[in-house]
Amino acid sequence: MRKRILLAVIVSYFSLSGMKAGSTAANPKLMIFGGENHETYLGCLNCSSAAADSIFNKSGRYRNCASMALGGDNLFCRLPFSEFGNTTPINKHFSACNSNASDPPVLVDEEGRYFGRFSVAEVFGHTDSVCRDTPQNRFRSKEACKLITTICATR
Q1: 120-140 pLDDT, tens digit each
Q2: Of 64, 117, 121, 144, most Cβ neighbours within 10 A?
């Protein structure tokens, strides 16, 4: 059931945002980076689910959470010490799924253009979170917020 919901959110995200899976000049590849100085690549947001680096590739490293030893730390990992998908206070600094994260992942395209923080943080989050709904936030995106919220709810 949750997989169907996630798929529906993905389809909705791409159709509502005018994006198509895969990058083109009009549709740049949106990449997620997290961790210290945002140096850890966390996958492609709008690539085809068949792409090796798509966060929606069921067998890809950016979708599966095998184990920390195998480098399985990504947005979908809920292990106690996962950095990017953890919802607990432990190791929350870089988590997209923790509303109190001090430095959640960011969205950038291949040209280096910034699209905000890919984070569930709303009211008390960073002013550039895709979920923060304030008039000053030019990065607010209902579709991206719904997507990261669904990803963080996926177990």
Answers
A1: 987 666 889 999 888 888 898
A2: 117
